[in-house]
Amino acid sequence: MNRLPLAALAASLLAGCASTPQLQSAPATTPTRIDGSDTDWQTDLQPVEGQTGLSLGVRNDGAALYAVAVVRGEQQVRQALAGGLTLWLDPDGGKAQAYGVRFPVVQRERGARPDPSASSADRLAASTRDLELLRDGEATGALLPASSASGPQAAASVQSGVLVVEYRIPLGDGATALDAAGAEAIGLGLTTPERERPEGAARGGRGGRGGGGMRGGGGRGGRGGGRPGGDRAERPQPLDVWVRVALAD
User: Fold this and answer.
1) Residue 138 φ/ψ, nearest 5 degrees
2) CA distance 66 to 204
3) N or C, where is the chain less crowded by C-beta within 10 Å?
């Protein structure tokens, strides 16, 4: 009588484990130069299951965790350059935003739109001098040099529309380090921020309507072809990917 419930429970647990892609970290036996290139990552790059155009590589030793993200999706590259890309790490192997590095760091006034005339290279050059450290899902207010010798490091490049971001995260109990002592696996996430809604735009793709609330003519008259929810359907979703990384011994 108990076999069916137990079988269903086991299947549920297996499905839960399978829902998070698994990656294996490689031992960092040779120095990894953080220069925004994936040239020395070719043997360790792994496509992320269920994510078209996204590959990750991870290495570790006793002192640091090294990671590279290669983003090929046009919309995802645009999102990362326009709003920044955040690397999240959970030393418990889950999806907690325990430690984060936002890079590139895009700083502009709220509501301001990126300069459409700026090239990807120009945007990247202006946003890769520093990185932002985050703890417990929140910004710490700490902007650190991206090439710091002792703290976290990051570098990025865009070539032929492909974004490559490299990271070095120090391990330990220091103020800017990830405390992963004793961990056999960590959670690693990559996110881009929600796209800001322009001021005055209504929800559900109805921007531009007057405040009178008159629909008129069955909702078709003079609305320029905008259909309910049309803008929402076309708006690209922010990147929100998590993998579980088994650390190298």
Assistant:
1) -125, 150
2) 41
3) N
